[in-house]
Sequence to fold (390 residues):
Amino acid sequence: MRRKEGNKEQDIISAAIEVFAKDGYHEAKISKIAELANVATGSVYLYFESKEVLLVKIFSDLWIKLISLVKTINERDDLSSTEKLEGFIDTVFDVFTANSKLALLFVKEQPHFLQEKDNKLNILYNNFLEIGEKILDDGVNNNSFNKNLDKKITKNFIYGGVRHLLHLWALSPDEYPLNKVRQDIKYIVKKGITK
Amino acid sequence: MRRKEGNKEQDIISAAIEVFAKDGYHEAKISKIAELANVATGSVYLYFESKEVLLVKIFSDLWIKLISLVKTINERDDLSSTEKLEGFIDTVFDVFTANSKLALLFVKEQPHFLQEKDNKLNILYNNFLEIGEKILDDGVNNNSFNKNLDKKITKNFIYGGVRHLLHLWALSPDEYPLNKVRQDIKYIVKKGITK
DNA sequence: TTTATTTTTGAACCGTAATTCATTTATAAT
DNA sequence: ATTATAAATGAATTACGGTTCAAAAATAAA
Fold:
């Protein structure tokens, strides 16, 4: 018997993130991913049944990680609502800061998934947003946040703004220093929604 | 001689907006666009030299319209900085409210263009954002807006938030009534950035 | 009516790249 | 060593859909 050497699956995933991010999912070629991962074209299919499955794997890993992180924050009872909200925003920045290619891929391709309500990715994505909404909810209930703002709208406004800035940062890190970006966003959000 | 009947070019554009919005640019088929426009597949190529040119035409028409509208607002000297900013946001909502398919197309495909800095579309897009930045600039200078916020960041945060909510609205208009969306966004922005 | 010219058609063409699979390679077991 | 089996290869296959183009249709001019 022969056993697998190295971690080809991970190599392929990393390569795919890079190529998908640069070229966009549809223009990305499996052969290029394989080359970057140092495997043969056909090997990609030993680990992923199709190009699409590979993309979905990347996204679902990402969501699972994000969900776990923000869940932890939300469960901490030493944090105020405002601090939880800041922590939520920080988490997103932290995860993507660690991998700008993933950030790029995320902003470019995620919009295409929002359409079909009940695919795996949308379910995860909604789990994630629900936690954000819970934080906003509690903040309203304990009188920290403004009651008159719709929570779904507020949460998605923040989400969209954060996502767009991550995109710009991923394209030109120097023009959008993440520290300043985070700081400004948190300032606007806090000032904009607290009473 | 034979003369053209109807306005096939416009029919094709409208059909393309719809099909691109629903299926995404890459999955959209010329044959489907042609069918929806009531022309033969080949006819699309009498009006547009390629699928990509057709997409670019749609986007550039959109940007040209938006630029003209926000320019007008910015030139009015009876408006305060805050009112101009509100007017800017309103303009975007107005244009997309009139055509939710276009909104959907815009949010799905625009991210793919940001990469290549100097294509036609990015130049238009930057013209548009520059006007937004000018409004923010003036607001800072006349002491309406907070000096400590970076203008590029602020403008893009707002832009991203607005875009994402337009996306959600285009997918489920009932869940995201645009009036409430506009109202909340303008509230957060005003409160978030004014001194 | 006939002819010339422009518009339109849609099936065939063709390039591309995802996917497959016969073959080769590497290792574990005997 | 030899064999069996799993892993890996990459050229061949195949599907797909954008684009082309020869033929048809429509109208204006003669």
